[in-house]
User: Which sequence fits this backbone?
């Protein structure tokens, strides 16, 4: 067990190294000079050189990277060139909102897609199957920015149930109701795009499982449909869904970006794109590092969940 | 129109460079030189610039802003007495990047700073200036020394006194600042002469000097905090409570504000909302109380809406224009420049992208401004345009060039249309977006032929000095590389004098030379589409503010001076 | 093997699949798009770049109408022309990226999943890196370096799309590689490539195809999001049109909504076509209990048999048409009596059992006739009553112990469940009864086994567990569907002995379905021979063996079941194959393969004849004791 964990940690370290270095490389490849942006173009060359030196931009990429890495190992991720705020502060402010957004979105997506998938799998081809997958596709095929505007218009401007923007978000522990009220529409926007994927995956896996012998035998034993579905079918059918949720961690950041812009949430998505466009090596790399660790950790949890869901994996059969 | 996203993002980067997204003028130095307005640039220009609808009004210049409010609040509280209290949430189009007054301050930051500070000088209607935080500014005979006297008893938010020492520290920091210094090249030194007064000594006569103190150069911060980027300890009606990059800031009432009984509001929450439709829905839903509209669409839609007040700017803003590089072919030939100028149907551009709300420009001075001079700037004449191009092509070579622009979809649409005019006149045009994240300023300092540009305009035409004066060809900010004696002469006259009657002929010469030589093809003055849209309960946003010594100052929506001092909320 | 046969087999002849209107509408939509995309330059539509404000043809934000069908854009562009211009980039991007990513990702995934070891480790690590890395960073960097041409975007999208495919395929490969048929192929000395191509690839097509449908949508949508961020391709795309219209959505909704609708319909169409194609390659409609239909009236039993089946007709409604899986089957079974049902694969013998319990793997089943179990009409009684009867009166043991137990639940939960649900026992009582049962069926260390999962048990042990579950509520009828076929020979005998013992001890009636005559002999009291959905001969076991009347039975007696053959292989000793159940001949169903068949056999179905205790359906019943009818191997 320990060996397995050590192996995983090693692997995580390698992945983090590659990913963060790639970030440095890619940012270095993009045109533009942070020193020029900071000083303006009329700054004389001497000053530019001096600023570059201050920002550490005059040194070779590899040296800069190793420096950053060394600092990062001491949990110092550098600061933004422009705002001179530390990466960690920026991330700490942005992260909780994005995490909440993503977790809420996943919960909502599952809350919508699981019952629909079950209903659809019970009667493939029925109206509920057709309508659920049709509507899910409509939602999938609707760009998030249109969805955000319409949801906001209907539920915030017209009905006034939720705010159009997230301002001064209270912590979940301080005022959970207000927090959820503000995060509801953003999370829903993000969730609705996921529903189709989850619904489709789970539905087809449920249908596969429904054809297993043991399901037929459960029916032959006079067990009710509902019991069979929830106790016998759902769990073995949820492996692919779990995988998809794990894989989504990185993908959701892209979706979160749009949602964050449309509900004025200063989350990680916005911070990331601003950092990339602004060639903020340190901030961008810190975020990428964070996302990588998050991805690996979540997928580690997914693996653990696998073995909970399917005992065969526990004993290494699969 | 739409798609501001990227624009807004870019503006972050560019702006950091010194304001540049759209208005190039802005780089720290450059701009500062541009004049008082300097480092600032109207919010939202990037985003919007495009709009629709037609129907310009007469070119008559200052419209009565009252006409444009949707309800009877025009007189900003004429029949309403201000009451203290209340909190306001204000939408920001651009994110702030910090508060270092010696660096390039981003538009988003400036919006916040306007609640935190009182500049030394305020702009007044009609193009003049008046002392604001300063008690007085007096020049010597030949405008080579200006004496600034401060008001007694004023303190910074941290309790430090606002005295000559602090004034010198701030102005010296600005003069020597790597980014800001360019605006103060005419200043030799700043010296305290007594407890509350300091002399600004020039190396050349500078009659328009006070204008530069309307903005960044005129902000005073507590000397101990000079050069800090994450805090702003100044003299203004509000104090910075918190600032979160990417999100906004919260400012609270300054209980010890030096102007009695002001401000009215308890706090203002500045909230960064990058998406225009979202700002709009947030206003409709009451989640925010107002914002500076970045485009014509809001103005049009909200004018008929009793639930929203609209305040349109009347004075200095940007001009949209195309800079022609007079050092390279084919734009080094006046026939080509003239042909390109004649080819553009500016009315159609204005109808299409500004809903007819802006006016055609022929210089940085709006038709209503003190120094505006009528010139025979080439108007739309497609036949003549084609003729001129054909003539050049017959003699020299086919007219082929590339237009560079920042990667902003809204600007791109305009460039597409303008390019289609040029192609109709016979030119072969390639449109080239500068790389994502590349500063427009960087791009324009490289080789270019034609560049889509937002020229930063100022209350006083002296602001044009750094961009058009050739300095014998050594001025790198003279983007078009045109060396024109007439232009230099006109600008020099304007700078060396303070009497408008003496300066006017100088600027007339300057504007005539611009129309003749055409280093820059003007499209329109953008002030017509810069407006504040607010909930009607919010008062005092209008075009005028009251000066501490009585009299009117330009208000929030008129160019750069924008104060929250007398804004109040109906309870 | 079960799942393989599920996919590969059961594609009934003809493939006359009805794909449905939605499918054809989708095909038509895609065809229209392709047509417009290909011929956009020669079609009489306006220039997509033309501005109405200059040409005067279209007004700004003109509403959709005769002049401009899709309305006008912000500069009076003809939105129809622009939407058409967006077809090429959309289809090119969507299809090329999806195809490339699926191919490359698929190849990587198969290699990693099949080769395992180091190759797998490296590939998975690479996949993890790629998936963890925010694609946005890559996109912005690459775009600013290489420009925003369609080609660059295809490259970026493909690169970022490969990892998910690789990961999915790898997972599927890992799972498939353990399946028996791959092992079988491997042990038979098939080359790696052959296994990959012939055995794995066909089974991977489905998951990939299913993922690709979503993948296609995601590519098109991502382009839209990028267009919104101003980061997309340097040409008119649907995403760009929608993004452009977003700001106008309140005043001029058509500017955004028309291209959004076109995009939506395209995504939907590709998904529907994908689904349809999937159905084509693997037609399956699926178990839904509610679709069980019942026709006809009940016929009351004579006497008091525990199990009474009369004129049972089961029709499966498949896409290929109705399948008459069980066609007029009847038998009675009293307590303690054992009936063997013998037949080839596909003869309907398993279907008889399923018809009794009403559990089918296929959707749309109609049952007619009578099935009484313990006096309850299993076809017409209320659902709850039927379920209770199934839970208390019937026990069922299925063919493959490997698939008969839920792999994700502990043995204990599975044994206890019927006792708690139907037996009225509490958990504790159920548990002690479970222990008792485990001992009863001969499982050593039952305490420990109860806590284990099915995969921790051997095949024989698992079958004992399924028997224990079947016995949980002391059923009066035990239905055993080839209970020994999947087990190896020594275990087979143990299980048979166990079943025999249980029958005697519990006085259960038992139906034993098998293709193995040897199993039937000496174990059952009576035998029913099934052929093409009918019982062609039924009688006391001894009599059937000593004096078979139906020519099929006679042929069967002559063939020696080969234990080495996989369970579903046909008895090869009888030449030919049974008729299709969808297209039955009018006469005797065995006629095609019968040496004695004549005109009447082919024209007229033989009625059930013979004495009540030994009936048969044959025009030429054999009279001689069967000697050497079959030709052996």
Assistant:
């Amino acid at each position: 067990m320990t060996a397995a964990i050590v192996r995983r940690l090693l692997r995580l370290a390698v992945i983090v190294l590659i990913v963060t270095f790639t970030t440095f490389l890619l940012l270095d490849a993009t045109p533009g000079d942070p020193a020029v942006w900071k000083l303006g173009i009329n700054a004389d060359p001497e000053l530019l050189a001096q600023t570059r030196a201050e920002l550490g931009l005059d040194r070779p990429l590899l040296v800069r990277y190793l420096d950053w890495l060394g600092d990062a190992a001491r949990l110092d991720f550098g600061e933004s060139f422009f705002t001179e705020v530390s990466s960690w502060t920026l991330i700490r402010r942005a992260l909780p909102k994005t995490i909440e957004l993503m977790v809420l979105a996943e919960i909502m997506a599952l809350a919508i897609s699981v019952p629909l998938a079950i209903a659809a799998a019970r009667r493939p081809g029925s109206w509920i199957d057709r309508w659920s997958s049709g509507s899910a596709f409509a939602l999938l095929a609707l760009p998030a920015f249109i969805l955000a505007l319409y949801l906001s218009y209907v539920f915030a401007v017209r009905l006034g149930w939720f705010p159009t923007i997230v301002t001064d978000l209270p912590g979940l522990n301080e005022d959970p109701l207000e927090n959820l009220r503000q995060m509801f529409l953003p999370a829903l926007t993000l969730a609705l795009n996921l529903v189709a994927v989850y619904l489709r995956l789970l539905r087809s896996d449920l249908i596969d499982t429904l054809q297993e012998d043991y399901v037929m035998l459960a029916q032959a034993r006079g067990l009710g449909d509902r019991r069979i579905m929830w106790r016998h079918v759902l769990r073995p059918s949820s492996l692919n869904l779990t995988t998809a949720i794990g894989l989504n961690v990185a993908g959701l950041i892209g979706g979160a970006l749009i949602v964050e812009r449309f509900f004025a949430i200063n989350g990680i998505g916005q911070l990331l794109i601003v950092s990339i466009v602004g060639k903020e090596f340190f901030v961008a790399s810190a975020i990428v590092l964070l996302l990588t660790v998050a991805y690996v950790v979540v997928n580690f949890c997914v693996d653990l969940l696998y073995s909970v869901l399917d005992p065969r994996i526990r004993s290494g059969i699969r | 129109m739409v798609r501001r996203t990227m624009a807004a993002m870019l503006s972050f980067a560019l702006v950091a460079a010194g304001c540049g997204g759209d208005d190039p003028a802005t780089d720290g130095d450059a701009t500062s030189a541009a004049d008082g307005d300097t480092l600032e640039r109207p919010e939202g220009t990037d985003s919007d610039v495009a709009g629709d609808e037609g129907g310009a009004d007469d070119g008559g210049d200052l419209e009565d802003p009252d006409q444009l409010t949707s309800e009877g609040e025009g007189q900003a509280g004429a029949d309403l007495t201000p009451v203290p209290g209340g909190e306001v949430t204000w939408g920001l189009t651009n994110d702030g990047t910090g508060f270092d007054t010696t660096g390039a301050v981003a538009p988003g930051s400036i919006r916040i700073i306007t609640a935190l500070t009182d500049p030394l000088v305020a702009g007044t209607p009609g193009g003049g200036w008046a002392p604001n935080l300063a008690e007085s500014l007096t020049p010597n005979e030949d405008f080579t020394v200006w004496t600034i006297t401060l008001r007694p008893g004023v303190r910074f938010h941290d309790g430090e006194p606002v005295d000559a020492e602090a004034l010198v520290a701030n102005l010296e920091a600005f003069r020597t600042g790597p980014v800001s210094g360019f605006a103060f090249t005419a200043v030799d030194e700043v010296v305290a002469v007594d407890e509350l007064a300091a002399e600004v000594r020039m190396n050349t006569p500078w009659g328009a000097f006070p204008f530069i103190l309307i903005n960044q150069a005129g902000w005073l911060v507590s000397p101990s905090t000079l050069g800090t980027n994450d805090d702003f300890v100044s003299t203004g009606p509000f104090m910075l409570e918190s600032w979160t990059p990417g999100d906004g800031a919260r400012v609270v009432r300054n209980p010890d504000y030096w102007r009695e009984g002001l401000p009215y509001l308890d706090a203002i929450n500045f909230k960064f909302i990058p998406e225009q439709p979202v700002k709009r829905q947030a206003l409709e839903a009451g989640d925010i109380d107002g914002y500076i509209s970045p485009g014509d669409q809001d103005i049009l839609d909200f004018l008929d809406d009793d639930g929203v007040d609209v305040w349109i700017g009347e004075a200095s803003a940007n001009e949209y224009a195309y800079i022609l590089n007079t050092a390279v072919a084919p734009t080094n030939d006046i026939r080509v420049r003239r042909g390109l100028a004649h080819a553009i149907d500016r009315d159609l551009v204005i109808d299409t992208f500004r809903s007819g709300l802006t006016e055609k420009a022929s210089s940085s001075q709006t038709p209503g401004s003190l120094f505006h001079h009528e010139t025979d700037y080439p108007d739309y004449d497609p036949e003549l345009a084609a003729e001129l191009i054909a003539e050049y092509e017959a003699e020299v070579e086919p007219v082929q060039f590339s237009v560079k622009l920042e990667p902003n979809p809204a600007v791109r649409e305009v460039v597409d249309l303008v390019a289609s005019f040029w192609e109709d006149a016979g030119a072969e045009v390639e449109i080239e977006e500068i790389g994502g994240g590349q500063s427009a300023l960087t791009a324009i300092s490289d080789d270019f032929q034609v560049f889509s540009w937002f020229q930063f305009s100022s209350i006083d035409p002296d602001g044009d000095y750094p961009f058009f004066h050739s300095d014998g060809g050594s001025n790198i900010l003279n983007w078009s590389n045109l060396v024109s004696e007439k232009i230099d002469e006109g600008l020099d006259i304007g700078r060396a004098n303070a009497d408008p009657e003496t300066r006017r002929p100088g600027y007339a010469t300057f504007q005539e030379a611009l129309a003749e030589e055409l280093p820059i093809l003007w499209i329109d003055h953008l002030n017509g589409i810069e407006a504040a849209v607010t909930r009607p309960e919010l008062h005092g946003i209008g075009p005028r503010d009251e000066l501490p010594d009585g009299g009117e100052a330009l208000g929030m929506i008129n160019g750069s001076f924008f104060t929250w001092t007398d804004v109040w909320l109906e309870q | 093997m079960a799942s393989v046969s599920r996919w590969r087999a059961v594609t009934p002849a003809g493939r006359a699949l009805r794909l449905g209107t939605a499918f054809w509408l989708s095909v038509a939509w895609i065809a229209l798009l392709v047509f417009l995309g290909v011929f956009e330059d020669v079609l009489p539509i306006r220039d997509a770049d033309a501005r109405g404000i200059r040409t005067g043809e279209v007004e700004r934000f003109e509403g959709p109408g005769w002049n401009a069908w899709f309305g006008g854009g912000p500069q009076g562009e003809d939105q129809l022309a622009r939407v058409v211009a967006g077809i090429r980039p959309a289809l090119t991007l969507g299809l090329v990226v999806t195809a490339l990513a699926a191919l490359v990702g698929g190849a990587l995934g198969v290699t990693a999943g099949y080769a395992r070891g180091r190759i797998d480790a490296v590939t998975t690590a690479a996949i993890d890196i790629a998936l963890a890395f925010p694609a946005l960073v890559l996109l912005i960097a690459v775009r600013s370096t290489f420009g925003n041409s369609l080609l660059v975007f295809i490259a970026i999208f493909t690169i970022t799309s490969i990892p998910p495919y690789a990961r999915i395929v790898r997972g599927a490969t890992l799972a498939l590689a353990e399946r028996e048929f791959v092992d079988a192929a491997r042990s038979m000395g098939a080359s790696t490539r052959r296994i990959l191509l012939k055995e794995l690839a066909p089974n991977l097509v489905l998951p990939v195809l299913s993922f690709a449908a979503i993948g296609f949508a995601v590519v098109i949508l991502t382009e839209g999001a990028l267009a919104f961020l101003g980061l997309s391709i340097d040409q008119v795309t649907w995403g760009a049109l929608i993004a452009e219209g977003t700001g106008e959505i309140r005043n001029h909704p058509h500017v955004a909504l028309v291209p959004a609708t076109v995009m939506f319909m395209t995504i939907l169409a590709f998904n529907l076509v994908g689904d349809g194609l999937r159905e084509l390659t693997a037609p399956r409609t699926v178990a839904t209990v509610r679709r069980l239909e019942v026709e006809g009236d009940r016929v009351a039993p004579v006497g008091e048999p525990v199990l009474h089946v009369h004129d049972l007709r089961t029709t499966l409604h498949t896409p290929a048409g109705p399948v008459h899986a069980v066609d007029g089957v009847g038998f009675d079974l009293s307590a303690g009596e054992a009936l063997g049902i013998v037949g080839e694969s596909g003869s309907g013998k398993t279907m008889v059992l399923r018809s009794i319990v009403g559990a089918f793997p296929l959707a749309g089943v109609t049952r007619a006739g009578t099935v009484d179990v313990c006096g309850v009409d299993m076809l017409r009684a209320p659902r709850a009553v039927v379920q209770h009867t199934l839970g208390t009166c019937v026990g069922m043991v299925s063919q493959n112990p490997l698939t008969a137990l839920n792999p994700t639940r502990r043995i204990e939960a599975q044994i206890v469940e019927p006792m708690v649900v139907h037996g009225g026992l509490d958990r504790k009582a159920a548990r002690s009864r479970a222990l008792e049962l485990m001992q009863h069926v001969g499982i050593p260390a039952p305490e420990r086994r109860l806590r284990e999962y099915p995969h921790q048990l051997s095949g024989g042990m698992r079958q004992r567990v399924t028997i224990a579950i079947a016995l949980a509520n002391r059923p009066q009828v035990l239905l055993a569907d080839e209970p020994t076929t999947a087990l190896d020979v020594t275990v087979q005998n143990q299980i048979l002995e166990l079943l025999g013992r249980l029958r005697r001890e519990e006085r259960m009636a038992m139906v034993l379905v098998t293709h193995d005559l040897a199993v039937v002999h000496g174990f059952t009291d009576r035998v029913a021979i099934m052929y093409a959905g009918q019982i062609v001969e039924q009688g006391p076991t001894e009599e059937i063996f000593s004096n078979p009347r139906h020519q099929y039975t006679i042929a069967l007696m002559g063939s020696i079941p080969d234990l080495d053959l996989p369970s579903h292989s046909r008895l090869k000793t009888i030449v030919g194959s049974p008729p299709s159940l969808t297209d039955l001949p009018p006469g005797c169903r065995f006629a095609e393969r019968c040496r004695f068949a004549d005109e009447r056999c082919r024209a007229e179905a033989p009625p059930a004849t013979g004495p009540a205790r030994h009936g048969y359906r044959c025009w030429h019943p054999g009279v001689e004791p069967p000697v050497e009818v079959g030709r052996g191997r």
Q: What stands out?
A: Chain C touches chain B through 23 residues (CB under 8 Å). The longest strand of chain C covers residues 321-333. The first helix of chain C runs from residue 2 to 8. Confidence is low (pLDDT under 50) at residues 1-17, 285-290, 562-572, 625-633 of chain C.
